[in-house]
Write a structure and sequence with these properties.
Elements (H helix, E strand, L loop, with lengths): L7 E11 L3 H5 L2 E10 L2 E10 L8 H9 L5 E9 L2 E7 L1 H8 L8 E8 L9
């Protein structure tokens, strides 16, 4: 293993759930968590997004779409170095495509997490 090795990128599609949080909606945030098998292990990939101010008055409509995410998947882009996932990014283009709604493309990530445990309050 070399510290100078280039990272490898992989893509996986995973189901996701929406973190229903009225306080977040009031501040313009939407959060989702994708979950499933990544490199042979069950993992969680969480992200919070700030909705573009242009769509802030439509955030509840966007949240309603996310609440009904059953059967939908989102692309996760993995940055892997020396066999270890260094970053897992939820692809907003694939989230937008899941709903055929371009508003999701214009969100800005405010926080993310990747690991063995869910970052969200269990809502399943």
């Amino acid at each position: 293993m070399s510290i100078f090795s280039k990272p490898e990128y992989k893509e996986v599609f995973l189901p996701f759930i929406y973190d229903i949080n009225d306080d977040d909606i009031d501040t313009g945030l939407l959060s989702i968590e994708a979950y499933g098998s990544i490199l042979g292990e069950y993992k969680y990939c969480f992200a919070s997004y700030l909705v573009n101010k242009k769509y802030f008055d439509e955030i509840e409509e966007m949240a309603d779409l996310l609440k009904n995410s059953s059967g939908k998947t989102v692309k996760i882009i993995l940055k892997i170095k020396n066999g270890i996932v260094k970053k897992a990014t939820i692809d907003l283009d694939s989230l937008s495509a899941a709903y055929n709604d371009n508003r999701f493309k214009f969100m800005e990530v405010t926080g993310w997490g990747y690991g063995d445990k869910s970052y969200m309050i269990p809502i399943r």
